[in-house]
């Protein structure tokens, strides 16, 4: 019937009954339910003339299916129901009526259909899980019906573990039922009321069972009797499996808490002392570890997280530090919100323990380091995108969530090294003195293979490994720097294998190889000896070291081609580029080979390329050269620096380029170049993009922020009319306003003389960029011919006459916006779309009036 047409029923209950009667496959049944829902919605929309909210089909089908299953369970109650009574041992009826057989078939089909509908999102999931939980709670006293209900629990136990509240309730009822069964067993000296056993627990008409060994533990003996009964075996194992899943997937649901409702912990009602199921050694070890963690957290909760006075103080300081980090506004800095105030909140002088304060400070330092590399935070200091961090982990053979935190770990140790908190030299000396890297020198390819092998390890183990070493290294940052007088002597506390498994010990060397390979060093002459020591430690003094250096030099040389004379702007020849990089330079293969390098090598390559760009600008500004780097090539270098998480070097490069741009613009004007007036602002636009992306990192340094702010002010100092400028200049002005408003030190007396001209124009600029806009609601007719020459050729410069026409007439602005939007909808070429976007930005920058028309266009395009 379903193959020919879609049957229509008046009631949803009839659909379920027919599906069960004809045993329609569940996938086909879900299709019929979807079609019926669409039909009911269409009928409701036709009849609903008052425009009231239509009923939710998902909720209605959930209620219908719940009602259908409840009816089948009620019909089966007489056959399956069995409640033990003192002195009465009835056997469950072996015969069933035809109605009960149909109900059993409907129950089985209904539960299968519910599972498919649940997976496809046709049921309201949380109410359905609550209904399953209510069925279990209501039928928990009936051992016979539990034979039907427990499989239903096992079907959705994975979904229950997603909710701490539902998992806690389910665990509580399961523990309560198991406790009741054991209590009845103890009270009767053996659960003789089993429906498949006669008096004394022996099956009627069957030979006596073999004698069971008597266990000394009465709890174990009770469970042995239960699982040896064919009737109760499935119930005990089913409820035990439910508890095991909740324990492993959502252990927080089993932690004790004082809620005052008598249900402080589900385990309080459980007779189980551990894992009752027969599991292999690995799973049993994991569950035991989780059980110990739950017990430890429960004890701490019982004592209100205050085991000892010193521990209470440390925990309080850690929680206060977390609150300070959460409440700190990372996007701005002022007198009440800066790094000095944050440090005072994290390390309050009055809260130190003892004379030197090290006991509590160690916990805070550990917290800060774990917080810095955690993939769960929003990364306020260095906002590296999640997909780039994950890509970095995949490139270097890290598994699981360590992929997300490895780039943050690299940045952390780079900053610790730059501020002389972590000694890279001491770290290498410690590895040498302990023989941590006692391996034959390997080539770069072999080292990459070693990284790839760690990809096959478990994700949680990888995270444990990196966090373990981070823990040990951070704990001994101060002690390592304090023992500079005897660097080669082994430190007892520096051992990285204490308290961990043999597997972790065996993999220790590989982790140190990864750290030594990837942890970058500041590009400074002071770290030349560290660089040589690292190369010798990793590659020896023979061919492998030469190959490693050659790979870096080869990549450096290849990227440097972008800043050679052939692919640069020759101002002496009219600002032309001899060869276009699009056909000459393989961008994608270079990026792939660049990503294959270690972070250490990536930092070296990007540093050398950044120096080359700055030297080109400096030579041109001094009149010693006629070549300038192409703006797109500089943007490509910025992308590489982001991939290498070389954020500090990126901001330094931006600062140095801004220092040269005013002189570069002066040289272009003196040579009457066609690039005058556009090159400096275009390059400044890319610099603004990098500074906005890493704004929170930039404002950590006042000198750095002030230098970049001053450089951007010089780039746009020629702009007299802020409402009539290029789009690049407008973006620079907007970023200056953002910096000036978010950094209070730029408005201080120290910088008052340097930024006086900008401070005078600040209020006008702030009003210009912060004015709230509303759609104009205009009803002009579109003139398809207005500025059609610019829309057909977006790269054509906008003439002053066209700008005046936009300013003078609202109909012209409406026609321009409509023509651009229509052209965008009809264009599939990405380059042309980019040119149209630039055209729209340029027109809007020179005439603020079209902003309202753009809002009209966007609001209309958002309407379905």
Low-confidence stretches: 83-94, 191-206, 273-278, 351-359, 379-400, 441-467, 476-509
Spatial strand arrangement across the major sheet: 2-1-3
Helix content range of the residues, please? Answer: 55-70%
* First-residue to last-residue Cα separation: 37 Å
Number of strands: 3
Strand content: under 5%
Sheet with the most strands?
3 strands, antiparallel
Shape: globular
Give the C-alpha Rg: 36 Å
Structure annotation, total helices: 38
Class inferred from helices and paired strands: mainly alpha
The overall pLDDT, averaged over residues, is: 77
Structure description:
- The two termini are 37 Å apart.
- This protein has 864 residues and is mostly helical.
- The chain contains 38 helices and 3 strands.
